[in-house]
């Protein structure tokens, strides 16, 4: 009987530890995303505006043709 209770206590303690670990990992991931977002927002405010894109010309392709006589 004591062994059954001990096993149940161990199971309970293990699942509680797993829950705490999951919660910690979730919070750590959220903090990383938040920090990254704030960095990007702060950096974007200090960057000079981007120049407009330069128009790109397509390479001219000449199609040779022959006239039949």
Number of strands: 0
- Envelope shape: elongated
- The percent range for helix content is 55-70%
Please give the alpha-carbon distance between the first and last residues: 108 Å
Q: What portion of residues belong to β-strands?
A: under 5%
Instruction: Note the total helix count.
Output: 1
| Major sheet attributes | none
Explained architecture:
With 69 residues, this protein is mainly alpha-helical. The protein has a domain at 1-47. Helix content is 65%, strand content 0%. The protein contains one helix and no strands. The longest helix is centred in the middle third of the chain and has 45 residues, at 2-46. The radius of gyration is 33 Å and the shape is elongated. The model has no long low-confidence stretch (mean pLDDT 74).
Task: Give short descriptive properties of this protein.
single chain; 69 residues; mainly alpha; 65% helix
What's the topology here?
Elements: H1 2-46
Region (Disordered): 1-23, 44-69
Biased composition (Polar residues): 60-69
Gist of the model:
Residues 60-69 have a biased composition (Polar residues). The chain is built from 1 helix and no strands. It has one helix at 2-46.
